[in-house]
Amino acid sequence: MKNPALVLTGEETAMLEGGRGAGTAMAMRMVTALARVLGAERLIPITGAHIDGCLYHGQAGLDFAQKLVEQGAAVAVPTTLNTSSLDLMHPGLVRLPPEDAGPAHALMDAYRALGARPTWTCAPYQTTERPALGEDIAWAESNAIVFANSVLGARTERYGDFIDICAAITGRVPRAGLHVPEHRVPTLELDCSSLSAGMLAAEAVWAALGDVVGRRSGSGIPLLTGIDPLLVDEDKLKALGATAASSGAVALFHVAGVTPEALAAGSWPGRPCLAVTAEMVRAARDELSTAAPDAPLDAVALGTPHFSVREFEKLALALASRPAFHPGCTVWISTSREVLAQARAAGLVQPAEDRGARIVVDTCTYITPILGPAERTVMTPSGKWAWYAPMNIGVDVVFGTLAECLDSACAGRLVRDDNQWS
Fold first, then answer.
1. Residue pLDDT, tens place only, 226-242
2. CA 386 to chain centre
3. b (16+ CB within 10 A) / e for 225-258
4. pTM for this structure?
5. What residue ranges define each of the domains in the chain, with the CATH number in brackets?
6. Are the CB atoms for 55 and 83 separated by under 8 Å?
7. DSSP state, 151?
8. Helix (H), strand (E) counts: the chain
9. Do 353 and 384 touch, CB atoms closer than 8 A?
10. CA-CA distance, 218 to 274, in Å (whole number)?
């Protein structure tokens, strides 16, 4: 069936024809091309954007951003920037060769020149400004997309490199996909009522649950039922969504009685239902681990997605009864500049640093060469880190709860507590 014709407003036509400069016209050509592919009849305004294209993958990405700058483009809506390839606060921490480090820095400069805010975080929802229920936005980065749609109730499709900045410059996206209310209805129910309150106390369990959700849902929209709302907080939902977007292609989930669009879900039609068991979650935990059970432990990676202020608080409390980390095990914590400043001001970072932890900002340990050459077996409570680190940086992963990670870091060897998974 032939797609309907795309109808532009007078302002949009002017942008396309160069009325706001060559850079905006270039961006509008990209947005309208996407709209025609998606079969959208019109464009809609957005209130904000989050850009993933500032992570350096090669010369083409730099050429594209610099071309927009040269043609006078600038963002038309508040725009945040995702993790980059460098930690500018800790020079030399990322061991990129000069032929990559130079262009990576130039790419960061280009996006700042376009007017984006240098947040350098994969968790823009932890900044001081974030979208509200029902707002249309253009966010890239899989965990940010699923968090915005699910936890905040904002509306964004899966925007990737190049189209994300074009949406920010034009302030427009196609009215298609998850921007349309009818497309946000659950396609599958996952009954979690058999999971105990004790099990759901750990964020890593939510990450493992996210692995189950992603594998079972694919690109569908799951509705999780049977979970006591009192057991839920944003960091657990963050962990769930980040892994579900990695193991599957989940861009929106609902939790009955918790997430904003699931507070009044009675009008949703019937859907297939699958029971989620503790055995399924433990199996996901084991699948997220690639290291041999007796492998030596070299490092612990926290903060994927970026650590929140609340997670620093939880970490400080957990460290109060623990000694310094073993000298043979480095604990890495990735976070944003904004969160780090808040956590430092509250005295929440020093307990970790006093015990030997190292802080990373602007980037993340699973996408850039930060870990030392001898750090080959890494423990993490992050499902996303466990999914991507073996492919990206060639390490073996042990997946576990924060408590297991901290006990292991202090002992310098793998420490397991199966009680946390029962």
1. 999 999 999 999 999 99
2. 14
3. bbbeeebbeebbbbbbbbbbbbbbebbbbbbbbb
4. 0.97
5. 10-182 (3.30.499.10), 185-286 (no CATH), 288-421 (3.30.499.10)
6. yes
7. I
8. 14, 14
9. no
10. 14
